[in-house]
Give the backbone structure.
Amino acid sequence: MNKTFTIIKNEKIARATYEMKLLGDVSDITRPGQFVAIKLDGYFLRRPISVCDIYDCSGDGSGVLTLIYKNIGGGTEFMSTLRPGVELDLLTGLGNGYDTKKSGPYPLLIGGGCGVSPLYLLARRLIAEGKHVAVILGFGTAEEVFYEDKFREIGAFVTVTTADGSHGTRGFVTDALPAAGSYTYTYSCGPEPMLRAVYKAAATSGEYSFEERMACGFGVCMGCSCRTVTGYKRICKDGPVLEKEEILWK
Amino acid sequence: MNKTFTIIKNEKIARATYEMKLLGDVSDITRPGQFVAIKLDGYFLRRPISVCDIYDCSGDGSGVLTLIYKNIGGGTEFMSTLRPGVELDLLTGLGNGYDTKKSGPYPLLIGGGCGVSPLYLLARRLIAEGKHVAVILGFGTAEEVFYEDKFREIGAFVTVTTADGSHGTRGFVTDALPAAGSYTYTYSCGPEPMLRAVYKAAATSGEYSFEERMACGFGVCMGCSCRTVTGYKRICKDGPVLEKEEILWK
Amino acid sequence: MEVKRNDTAERCDTSVVLCGIMLDNPVIAASGTFGYGYEFSQIYDINVLGTFSFKGTTLYPRFGNEQPRIAECPAGMLNAVGLQNPGVDAVISRELPLMAKYFHKSAMANVCGFSIEEYVAVAEKLDLEEQVGWIELNISCPNVHGGGAAFGLDPKMAAEVTSAVRRAVKKPLIVKLSPAAADIAAVAAAVEAAGADAVSLINTLPGMRIDLRRRRPLLANEKGGLSGPAIFPIALRMVYDVYKTVSIPIIGMGGVSTAEDVIEMMLAGATAVQVGTANLVNPTACLDIINSLPSVMTKYKINKLSDIIGGAHL
Amino acid sequence: MEVKRNDTAERCDTSVVLCGIMLDNPVIAASGTFGYGYEFSQIYDINVLGTFSFKGTTLYPRFGNEQPRIAECPAGMLNAVGLQNPGVDAVISRELPLMAKYFHKSAMANVCGFSIEEYVAVAEKLDLEEQVGWIELNISCPNVHGGGAAFGLDPKMAAEVTSAVRRAVKKPLIVKLSPAAADIAAVAAAVEAAGADAVSLINTLPGMRIDLRRRRPLLANEKGGLSGPAIFPIALRMVYDVYKTVSIPIIGMGGVSTAEDVIEMMLAGATAVQVGTANLVNPTACLDIINSLPSVMTKYKINKLSDIIGGAHL
Ligand SMILES: Cc1cc2nc3c(=O)[nH]c(=O)nc-3n(C[C@H](O)[C@H](O)[C@H](O)COP(=O)(O)OP(=O)(O)OC[C@H]3O[C@@H](n4cnc5c(N)ncnc54)[C@H](O)[C@@H]3O)c2cc1C
Ligand SMILES: Cc1cc2nc3c(=O)[nH]c(=O)nc-3n(C[C@H](O)[C@H](O)[C@H](O)COP(=O)(O)OP(=O)(O)OC[C@H]3O[C@@H](n4cnc5c(N)ncnc54)[C@H](O)[C@@H]3O)c2cc1C
Ligand SMILES: Cc1cc2nc3c(=O)[nH]c(=O)nc-3n(C[C@H](O)[C@H](O)[C@H](O)COP(=O)(O)O)c2cc1C
Ligand SMILES: Cc1cc2nc3c(=O)[nH]c(=O)nc-3n(C[C@H](O)[C@H](O)[C@H](O)COP(=O)(O)O)c2cc1C
Ligand code: FES
Ligand code: FES
């Protein structure tokens, strides 16, 4: 799982938001919702970032990995300065990821901020499986919106919300729920307050992706453990995706 | 003195020995025998390296700085991997340097290993002042020899010694002293055992360049202080060059 | 004799003997950073290790502290995991049988407790397990009956828990010392006198970070334990001091990340070395260290690693 | 009141008051890393500093330890300079008049000694100097009359030297604590009771490196003091603990290198902050920190820096 990737693209796509494409061995990435952990020069701990998309270039596992990250601190700021050609050391294929089998025919995907990122590969996979995918993408303001068109291109039914109403529906993702039509399952990723709101508002069962500060990222240090209905779970290994029924809010 | 330089060349010129050329503001470097202190990513303390040569490109201080360094540990090994275009943060113009005014008409320059490096700019300056310069360059074996021809090209009278006799005179630099003819002053740089031997064997007064482990490199931490006949001296600020008469061997 | 030693010495002998058990090499994965070895065994064959110390075990299951438990630091990290573990019975019934499938050497059982009775109870149970080669007593835990100060801070309390466990177990007993002690060498001497077969050091150093946005301690537990390369010079100094004080073997740890660090620790006085945090940021850290030991030994002209133990002392 | 404060508050007020003296900002260059300011004054105008603490002064001139005195560490360094200084009389006759030419604020006099008498003698002399604003008592020095242990390790010894100096000087007395104490907060409380006007912490942590080639301790003095970012989480934790214990101001230090670090230290409880090792690797470290304070304050919504002192405590 310890792999060297080469940056092929690293560009700003929205306010403080960057899309990075890397070339390397993506064979360990088996499910949407998994993440990678990036070693950055000068930073001790690896940075966990969700897989936004993978594109398999050959039969041998080598492919393009797409990440979307928000510049929120030293490490992500440093990432945003890296140029194509730079090599990065990644742990790949981390976490359980979403289970597309549970979706039913009409899955609803709800993402907020960078939490939109892992929903892209999830939507692609669900659509490939013949599901009718609706997505609600929530942002603070118009300048933060990304991937709206990309979700449309693959055939998802897209609603965008912004808190200030500068683009799409004004309000939070849950404000777009009534207009989302009926759905068979909910997949969600985003900041914890959003997850809580979705948890309350969503009509169906579903899967929710969580974040915790991590040391190892592969399940050995217990740094990321959270309580759930079914006992403790390591967010990095048994998560980041939890089923709605097992969530125990802090 | 805190300056950004860009590497324009970094190549192996002898066994474990590299020549690095950098472009930047060399205006603080006023004397041969001074040194720079290089910040390297991942290494906490700066690495002190002697100025081998400077070439002023314009009237505004910008020029080419030549360094020669031996790969002896993590920092120098990392340096040897850096490619042209990489920027380095240097403190420049550190140390007192050699005083060419004291040389008399026939200075003798004696260097061992990397200690040969600062003698190059010294020789150039002395020759420019009309002095007749003889140099003795000591190495372990033929594969370690560097700059022999470069000293000849500028008009120095060159003797090379190797400990194993694989090139030039067999033995140590002091074994070449008898054949060096008469000289008016001695300038020396090299490992401490060599400096001691030269100190004993040299017929004249002279200047000797020392090394100590340094923290600041500019005289504020007292990390590099040594006892001398005239009181303590900070090797980084009051040195690295000491006059023969003030040296107190440990 | 001299000649005979040179004749029979293998080139690069990395083996060391720890309390009567031979280790192929001195590299031991540290408790709390290696789980029960399972995740690592999917990355490399963990039988290359000297051995490993599994996660600290308490009498009852513990969830540990609330989130966040991890904070980044320059050249290191803080953890406030709070000894999360399933409790000794689940370790014995579930983890050890699983471990036996992929690790075929004796493992080290890291034992924690909040009273002398708890230490004894946990150690007694683990002492009977075949996979357990050594008992490693983590005396950095607070003594709830002794005012809440950690056992490891005070030579007397450290000696008490050591001799109680000593009486209860047959296997070699290693006592793991806390660097927060005023005089770690005094604690080492006390546990040696109380019957410890070896000491391991250091556990993490108490540290803290503050979240500038929330203006509150970053960790839910406020403070955490500092580990990683940042503490290496402190750990090395303590190993050096303890070596001058005790004659039982020392297991050195604290920031060890390279084969050079292993050699530096051994020169300071360590018979074996534990590697903790390095495993977290580089999953193959132990493997990489073990693989590079021979070439680094050659570089520093070491034929037999056990020859250099304490070599930096005059 | 609230309204009035908001009205008059300047945007980004960096000033703090330290024992009755107002500092333009809380950034103080630390003793031993700034000489007498001379070298730095050739790089930038050092009057931008809150102030600086000059090199530790003893009664008689000291050469200090043999070479080598410096060793590199991950995110830090060891020094074993050994208090090299020209002695108090030369400091007064030579260094202070020179200093007055380029530094126009009150400076902090770092005072060292190997007996209570020496501390008193040095402090008494420096107390009379106009350029000296504060006396900073470095109690990490070994007490040669008290068995060689450092004064700062023991609350009683620390209190003794503090009250002796307190009686001898008029200027504000800052006692600089050693992190090697078993309980630094207890030492802080003891020196507060003995009359200290402030405490500064932390001094360096005892550490060591071994030279793999020579197989000997790298430093001539065997051990040295660890400083730099590596010790920041430890220093921060100690400042936090001491803030809970004393009510005199705290000067926080240990690895501070950025404006963010300054704010973190202040949230932990520091009224001002010292910057040491950062000056050595980046000669403009203090200047850079001071220049970036306003923008970092804005980022974290701080108008008046002194408002956040101890802000991380509930
Ligand atoms: C499973 C998972 C997937 C993620 N996917 C994405 C993604 O696709 N895009 C994206 O922009 N962000 C994602 N994050 C959050 C991302 O990891 C943090 O924003 C990033 O680590 C911040 O690093 P920094 O150095 O910029 O910030 P700093 O605050 O300086 O980081 C300091 C430390 O805190 C940790 N940290 C800070 N914020 C978080 C956080 N929210 N979650 C976990 N650790 C944190 C850092 O990793 C580091 O160890 C994900 C987090 C997790 C756990
Ligand atoms: C004034 C001066 C001029 C120098 N000029 C040259 C030169 O022109 N070419 C050259 O090859 N070398 C020169 N050196 C030596 C050079 O500084 C060291 O070889 C280099 O710092 C080693 O770094 P490292 O990380 O490779 O080795 P490591 O041993 O890993 O370094 C560890 C620490 O020790 C210090 N250190 C190790 N060896 C020395 C040494 N001999 N002197 C001072 N500090 C040391 C390093 O700077 C670092 O802080 C000079 C040293 C001084 C003091
Ligand atoms: C996440 C984490 C969990 C730890 N858990 C334990 C533990 O359960 N028992 C124990 O004795 N030490 C524990 N430690 C301490 C390590 O075993 C080791 O003593 C310390 O981290 C110093 O070594 P290092 O710098 O190589 O990590 C833990 C350390 C970390 C980082
Ligand atoms: C080279 C050096 C010399 C020092 N000399 C002194 C001194 O004379 N007196 C003193 O109280 N502290 C001295 N210190 C300690 C520093 O003032 C400071 O307490 C310590 O280094 C931690 O801060 P830092 O990590 O910012 O350097 C010295 C530190 C260094 C690195
Ligand atoms: S981060 Fe280590 S177990 Fe999850
Ligand atoms: S290295 Fe700091 S005074 Fe010379």
About this structure: The interface with chain B takes residues 32-35, 39-40, 43, 55, 63-64, 66-77, 79, 81, 84, 228, 277, 279-284 of chain D (CB under 8 Å).
